[in-house]
Amino acid sequence: MSELRFDGKVAVVTGAGHGLGRSHALALAERGAKVVVNDLGGALDGTGASTGPAADVVELITKNGGEAVASTDNVATPEGARAIVQSAIDAFGRVDIVINNAGILRDKSFGKMTVEEFDAVLAVHVRGSFLVSHAAFPYFKEQGYGRIVNTSSPAGLFGNFGQANYSTAKMGLVGLTKTLAIEGARAGIKANAIAPIAWTRMTEALFPAEFESKFTPERISTLVTFLAHESCETTGEVFSVGAGRVARVFVAEGPGWKQEGHTAEDIRDNWEAIMAEQPYLTPTTLGEQASASMKAMF
Ligand SMILES: NC(=O)c1ccc[n+]([C@@H]2O[C@H](COP(=O)([O-])OP(=O)(O)OC[C@H]3O[C@@H](n4cnc5c(N)ncnc54)[C@H](O)[C@@H]3O)[C@@H](O)[C@H]2O)c1
């Protein structure tokens, strides 16, 4: 089987100074991509900034014989996002791949969570992914080609105590991914999302020590590498990934229950049918979902 190469391709990886992003940047560079290593260099909660982490990863890539430039811009501001994409254009003349990976945590139980804690997390994950993709989109359209990988989370797909802000953001990224897939289709732009589980500074306090050698960031980067590659035709999908396992996660609609002029009591009495999962549909657009619902209604 032929190796997946990225020669001539330019990738932007956000939050690439640590953890998953660092691993994605190294993996893409090793396979020939020129990489913009973006990282604000702050703490886990998004406070502070440092040029160190992005510079260190660039140094490592260069030492390994690859090509990379550092960016310490903030993904959460329009100027920052534009500057990140501009770094790719200035250094390498193009942009083909955006890996939206930058993220922060401000965990707090729902009743105690402040508006600032909610907004700060949405700003980096959702706004940041929107802004960086938005800055790259005109280049993708112009060249009729582009790959976007967004970073969701099982916490968003399934919910998690203490993460109202983070889960809202991570499920928001599923919506963004699906709509980007639809709007990018005609221009050859594919967008997918991953929901990883890996040992990084974000999770090391939560996981048992034996996870460190099993849940490595490199085991996430294999999927990201494939999703970022020209040969990947899949778009609008979400994948659970970690410790060597990869699985499609899909949004499905059950067969449903129908009765003209039903009452609230009818709903109560038919709850089992309403909750049924089989046979389910996995629509890929609102149009597909709506036409299936219409068919069931009339
Ligand atoms: N580790 C896991 O198990 C796990 C699970 C689900 C999702 N994720 C997601 O994966 C992504 C990477 O997380 P990680 O585990 O590698 O954590 P990490 O803290 O090691 O990496 C996140 C990086 O993003 C950078 N960053 C934060 N805000 C930024 C901003 N505004 N602009 C630019 N860079 C910024 C940080 O400096 C950091 O280097 C995050 O989006 C996270 O939510 C991780």
Short summary:
The protein is an alpha/beta fold and 298 residues long.
Catalogue the unreliable spans: none
The CATH superfamily of the largest domain appears as: NAD(P)-binding Rossmann-like Domain
Under the CATH scheme, which architecture of the largest domain would be assigned? Answer: 3-Layer(aba) Sandwich
CATH topology of the largest domain: Rossmann fold
Oligomerization: single chain
Residues in helices, as a percent range? 40-55%
How are the strands of the largest sheet arranged? Answer: 3-2-1-4-5-6-7-8
Major beta-sheet overview: 8 strands, mixed
State the separation between the terminal residues, measured CA to CA: 50 Å
On the 0 to 100 scale, the average pLDDT is: 97
Spell out which ligands are present: nicotinamide-adenine-dinucleotide
Shape: globular
Discrete helix count? 11
- Indicate how many domains the architecture comprises: 2
CATH class of the largest domain: Alpha Beta
- What order do the helices and strands follow? EHEHEHEHEHHEHHEEHHH
Structural class designation: alpha/beta
List how many beta strands DSSP finds.
Answer: 8
